[in-house]
Every structure is written in structure tokens, then in C-alpha cells.
Write a structure and sequence with these properties.
Layout (H helix, E strand, L loop, with lengths): L1 E4 L5 H11 L5 H6 L1 H6 L3 E7 L5 E13 L2 E14 L8 H15 L6 E2 L6 H9 L17
Parallel strand pairs: 4-5
Antiparallel strand pairs: 1-2, 2-3, 3-4
Length: 146
């Protein structure tokens, strides 16, 4: 398996994978964001391909300047990471993470961030196994003003 930067010709496969990671989002909207994401220097977009060059996973990283509402120096934050089910539990996620870490180190960053839904125990276990440490648990609330 190979990790490389995402390209314009990945958009079809990338959009399909994003729709599987975020099934509650509008698939068309997820796809329409991709050209701008490729042009944005604050976004790192990685594609994982199999031996035949077929896209089987991706990672999206954003240089964030906010953490829990506080302004912080920019840091790389994993916004999404997804691997096709047939390639999971075989080190593919760690390959993507290694590419993210390499880019971060070469950019002079001292850490990377990520977040996980509270009920996503599998992702929590993966993050912990990869050396991430839990920082905070938060529940966000909203109140409609009807």
C-alpha cells in the first residue's frame, strides 16, 4: 500500500469514501468541497492506494488555530481518516498516520491532534494504540431560539 497526496483525479473515489465516513452528510456537498480542499494550503489531503493504484483510504488534516475555543498556534489536526473495510486491521491506518506525522515533523510541528465521537470506541482504541493521549471530553449543546 502507498500513501500519497490526493489529486484531482482522486475526487470520484475520495468523495465516495467521504460519504461512507460521514453518511449523515450530503454526498454531493462532500464531493463539491474537494477541489477547493486540494487548493487550500492549510489542508493536507492524503490518499492510500493498493498495489493496483486503487484508492482504499484517505486522511484529511487541517492546520487548526483553535482548541476548545482558545486561540493557539497552528497545529495539524486529523479531521477525518477512513480505510476500506477489507484493508482495516492490517496497518493501513498507521501508514496514513505515519505520513501525517512525517509531514508535521518536516513542518516543525511538535504534535498533531484529532477528535473522536464519544460513542466511537473503535476509533478511541485506535488513537490510544497509536500513542494519542486524551485531552478533554466535551458535549456540545444547542438551543433553538423559536
Amino acid at each position: 500500500m502507498t500513501v500519497r497526496d490526493a489529486r484531482l483525479d482522486d475526487i470520484g473515489a475520495w468523495a465516495a469514501m467521504r460519504a461512507r465516513l460521514w453518511p449523515d452528510a450530503e454526498a454531493a456537498e462532500l464531493a463539491s468541497e474537494l477541489p477547493a480542499m486540494l487548493a487550500d494550503p492549510t489542508l493536507w489531503n492524503f490518499m492510500l492506494t493498493d498495489a493496483d493504484g486503487r484508492a482504499v483510504g484517505f486522511a484529511e488534516v487541517q492546520l487548526r488555530t483553535m482548541f476548545d475555543g482558545c486561540v493557539v498556534p497552528p497545529y495539524p489536526h486529523i479531521e477525518g481518516i477512513w480505510i476500506d473495510t477489507e484493508h482495516r486491521r492490517a496497518g493501513a491506518g498507521r501508514q496514513l498516520l505515519a505520513a501525517i506525522e512525517e509531514r508535521a515533523r518536516s513542518g516543525g510541528y511538535a504534535q498533531i491532534g484529532s477528535d473522536v465521537e464519544l460513542d466511537n470506541r473503535g476509533s478511541q482504541a485506535w488513537h490510544e494504540a497509536c500513542g494519542f493521549g486524551e485531552e478533554v471530553r466535551t458535549i456540545l449543546y444547542a438551543k433553538p431560539l423559536d
